[in-house]
């Protein structure tokens, strides 16, 4: 990946992290001040987005390093590892939603999830 593309990627990831952090602060402050559980939960959700953006930024920052004695081909795979970390975070977040349903038992939630996916397939065909 060219250094220019890495620079733009870092800029985008950094701006995303700062913006999401500010959004988290606003949501959390308003949620706590008003007693809104939904806004407070939204703030926590936004915090996971901040972690994802920081992981991408870190991966891009590390991938800029020049080859050395330890990594003779450079650190370009750091970006791939950061992407893997982000995908694992997103997968974990969705798994929690799937197995901790709101007002349903786990079996009912999984059944609803599968039925929803199957109904989409039927509509698309």
Task: Note down, in words, how this protein is organized.
This protein is mainly α and 125 residues long. The protein has one domain. Helices cover 81% and strands 0% of the residues. The protein has 4 helices and no strands. The protein has helices at 3-34, 37-63, 77-99, 106-124. The longest helix is centred in the N-terminal third of the chain and has 32 residues, at 3-34. It starts with a helix and ends with a helix. The mean pLDDT is 78.
Instruction: Work out the radius of gyration.
Output: 19 Å
Shape: flat
Note the main sheet: none
Helix/strand structural class: mainly alpha
- End-to-end separation: 39 Å
Mean pLDDT rating? 78
- Element-level helix/strand string: HHHH
Can you give me a brief rundown of this structure?
By secondary structure, the protein is mainly alpha-helical.
């Amino acid at each position: 990946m060219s250094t220019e593309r890495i620079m733009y990627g870092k800029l985008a990831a950094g701006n995303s992290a700062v913006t999401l952090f500010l959004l988290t602060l606003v949501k959390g402050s308003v949620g706590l001040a008003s007693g809104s559980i939904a806004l407070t939960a939204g703030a926590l959700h936004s915090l996971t987005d901040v972690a994802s953006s920081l992981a991408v930024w870190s991966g891009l920052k590390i991938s800029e390093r020049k080859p050395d004695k330890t990594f003779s081909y450079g650190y370009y795979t750091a970006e791939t590892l950061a992407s893997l970390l982000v995908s694992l975070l997103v997968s974990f977040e969705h798994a929690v939603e799937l197995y901790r349903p709101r007002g349903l038992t786990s079996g009912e939630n999984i059944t609803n999830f599968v039925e929803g996916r199957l109904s989409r397939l039927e509509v698309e065909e």
